[in-house]
Amino acid sequence: MHSYRPAPVLEALGVCFEDEQLYRALLARPESTTTDLTRDTGWPATRVGRHLKSLLSLGLATRTSGRPAVYVPAVPEAAVELLALRKQAAILEARLGASVLSSEFRRQDSFTVIRGTEAVAQRFYQAQQSARTEVLVLDRPPYVVLPVEPRRAHGVSYRTIYDMASLSEPGDLVAARSAGCRILRDVPLKLVLMDRRTGLLPTTPDVIVELGPSSLLDALLRLFELLWQQASPLSPSAPEGPLSGEDQQLLALAAAGLTDQAIARRLGVAQRTVERRMQRILRALDATTRFQAGLRAGQRGLLA
Fold it and tell me: Which InterPro entries match (predicted)?
């Protein structure tokens, strides 16, 4: 018999192949001792004894109380039905466990999904009005609702990182400068964070996920701070030095990767004016490239 290996049929019910082999041997000899099964399978007695214990625990066999013990196989239909019921019970237990885990997840990482353009716009407005200390914004198009505008309330500070595509008009740039914000190429997502306790994360144009205190909110806060360090300031704060405020603004845009044509459009001046100012900036900073000029301006605190 040891040379015959039939295909397993009970694996899906949690019965290993060797257990099934011994069960088949027991079906072939319905009343067998350990010696009989050792001879029929060609296995060592210890191996037969180990798998007999497994068959007993699975309900695939029973044993008599006499000596030597005689093992009797369970009727296949009844045995399989019992195994299937146990499997269903295990699945049900797992589903109940998943419900418990989901409840724990919702308690830890609380979130609400808000749908509809009007509901989304209203929630953005309400969240902004409820802020008490700080609002952090990642801003990028397309816009279904109006971008978050700084609310001039006492004690509420705003920090916004604009995607370059957000500042397509000179007026946009003026507003960004007055808000003391920064610009970054390819802002990865839209995000509004209020008081470090609430986050609004748009997932589609008319759907946002509102996050409460959670590990995900903490991760988004860390992402914002990392992007803030990478972004280029738009509001110069160091008027001293060889650069005027306009020159600092121009260099910040150049450091962010904008072309002369794009800078001219955002500043509302001619491209030749931008080129002429850039040459003056390079001379003032004793730099030969824009990268070198941006680096030296940053070292002197002219862009921060």
Answer: Sig_transdc_resp-reg_C-effctor, TrmB-like, Tscrpt_reg_LuxR_C, Tscrpt_reg_TrmB_N, WH-like_DNA-bd_sf, WH_DNA-bd_sf
Structure tokens at 202: 């748009």
Q: Which of 114-118, 164-168, 227-231, 258-262 has the lowest mean pLDDT?
A: 164-168
| pLDDT at residue number 117 | 85
Architecture of domain 245-299: Orthogonal Bundle (1.10)
- Do the beta carbons of residue 173 and residue 262 sit within 8 Å? no
Give the β-pairing of 191-194 and 111-115: unpaired
**3-state DSSP percent of the chain in helix, strand and coil, to 5:** 50, 15, 35
> pLDDT by residue (tens digit) across 44-54?
999 999 999 99
Closest Cα to residue 142, out of 179, 168, 118?
168
Residue at 186: amino acid letter = D
Q: Summarize pLDDT for 199-214 with one digit per residue, the tens.
A: 998 888 788 988 888 8
Nearest C-alpha neighbor of 10 from the set 56, 21, 38, 40 = 21
Using the predicted structure, report yes or no on whether residue 59 has a pLDDT greater than 60.
Answer: yes
Each domain of the chain, given as residue ranges in start order, spans 1-108, 111-233, 245-299
- Domain spanning 111-233: which CATH class is it, in words? alpha beta
111-233 and 245-299: identical CATH topology: no
